[in-house]
Design a protein that fits this description.
Number of helices: 13
Organism: Gracilibacillus halotolerans
InterPro entries: ANL_N_sf, CapK_Type1_Caps_Biosynth, CHP02304_F390_synth-rel
Protein name: Putative adenylate-forming enzyme
Length: 434
């Protein structure tokens, strides 16, 4: 009962929280940071030591490697990494994600950045997170009946905390075949579907063929970068706008507003920007989450590339508007310059735009840099395959020439489907230590 009450309180608090000006938001954020740091300083041995000698804005950026290295002293519950890892691995093996240490849920991050991390969330944090999620995403309010179909690599007590008398939450394990998902969805008749875009695309295909017979009022893309080619196809089949939630194990970072613009959730975290280009449009977010007390996230650097919107959103929100999530910073293409004396950096969005501008026959694609001078393009095409393949190669060459890069060898291949347990990355670099 207490848990449900906390969800409702968090929901109401989130709904009531409005900011008229950016200055008002920033003053409030600083108050939250001060309050949060006081707790963390007294309960985390790691941060007690760090904050004794540095102001919080002087702390070095944290990342997954540092967090795991100092796991035992960083968390505020005295949980040992060895015990947490053993529990999380057992949950992955058995597909039973109910286990906890005391009142703390333990889980594994998906490991797309190359190493897996452990995340800890207490029951109180779960309740607060659920309230925020529901306040920002429910289309008809907390007390309307909704059936939510949630597709993820792994379930968690965190997601189960969304359940209530009016909300039916059904976890769909990505390890199951698409035929099983279609059968369950036809039986459930969900009003809301939350899934990675690669899975949503499969569902759209099943709906197009008549196998899937559902009519949700809201669909939300999670876990992977939503590519324009996938967004257009999914929205066309389901005849609704596809929303985005930018959620990581590190926190609930952004979501689309009623006008379809992605906004940073700066009412639950402070987000610094580590700019990646001289125009100061692309950045990696550095998050300080006011809500994470069990495993504090203070100046935590995410390895993602976000692009700022050039114009404010017409919804009127003072929270930062994002034009797109391009991908991860370790999937920037790096080629040799024409002189061979320097490196040319090409952001994923340039690759994405080149491919999509090449041909209307492209249904699915992946562009993978396998060597410094070698790029593989996988294509699923409708018609005129040879022509479309050449058009893609020509467009990519135009981009590389624009950046004064040495032209790599570009190889085209048929599109290869990935395992549903692996995040789909349409733009990817496989070169280590670039």
């Amino acid at each position: 009962m207490k848990k449900k009450l906390n969800v409702v309180l968090s929901y109401m608090k989130t709904k009531r929280k409005t900011f008229i000006t950016r200055e008002e938001l920033e003053r409030w954020q600083q108050q939250q940071v001060d309050k949060h740091l006081e707790f963390v300083r007294n309960h985390s041995p790691y941060f007690h030591e760090q904050l004794a000698t540095h102001h919080w804005e002087e702390l070095s950026y944290m990342n997954k490697t540092i967090m795991m290295e100092h796991f035992d002293s960083l968390n505020t519950k005295g949980i040992r990494k060895e015990e947490a890892m053993q529990l999380a691995l057992e949950a992955e093996k058995t597909r039973n994600f109910k286990a906890q240490i005391d009142d703390v849920t333990v889980g594994l991050s998906s490991g797309t950045s190359g190493n897996r991390g452990i995340f800890l969330v207490s029951e109180q944090e779960q309740s607060e997170w659920a309230g925020v999620i529901l306040a920002k995403l429910l289309p008809r309010g907390l007390f309307s009946r909704e059936k939510i179909a949630f597709f993820l690599r792994a379930n968690s007590n965190l997601y189960e905390s969304v359940k209530s008398r009016t909300i039916q939450f059904s976890f769909f394990d990505l390890i199951e075949p698409i035929e099983t998902h279609v059968e369950r969805l036809n039986e459930l008749q969900p009003t809301i579907i939350v899934a990675p875009p690669s899975l949503l695309r499969m569902l759209a295909s099943a709906k197009q063929s008549g196998e899937l017979q559902v009519a949700p009022i809201k669909m939300i893309s999670v876990a992977e970068v939503l590519e324009p080619v996938d967004k257009k196809y999914i929205e066309g089949i389901f005849n609704l706008r596809l929303d985005i939630v930018y959620q990581a194990t590190e926190g609930f970072i952004a979501h689309t507003c009623s006008h379809g613009t992605l906004h940073l959730n700066e009412d639950i975290m402070l987000i610094e920007k580590k700019f990646l280009d001289k125009e100061k449009l692309r950045f990696s977010p550095i998050i300080t989450d006011f809500k994470r007390t069990t495993q504090p996230m203070i100046r935590y650097e995410l390895n993602d590339i976000l692009t700022l919107a050039k114009e404010p959103c017409s919804c009127g929100s003072v929270m930062t508007s994002i034009e797109s999530i391009e991908g991860r910073s370790d999937d920037i293409f790096r080629l040799s310059s024409l002189t061979g004396k320097s490196t040319v950096v090409i952001f994923p969005d340039f690759i994405r735009r080149a491919v999509m501008a090449a041909s209307d026959d492209i249904e699915e694609y992946r562009v993978i840099q396998t060597e410094r001078d070698r790029i593989v393009v996988q294509l699923k095409l409708k018609n005129q395959k040879e022509l479309a393949e050449q058009q893609v190669v020509d467009k990519l060459k135009e981009i590389f020439e624009l950046f004064n890069a040495q032209l790599p060898t570009i190889i085209t291949k048929p599109y290869e489907k990935q395992s549903p347990l692996k995040k789909l990355k349409r733009i990817e670099t496989c070169i280590q230590g670039q």
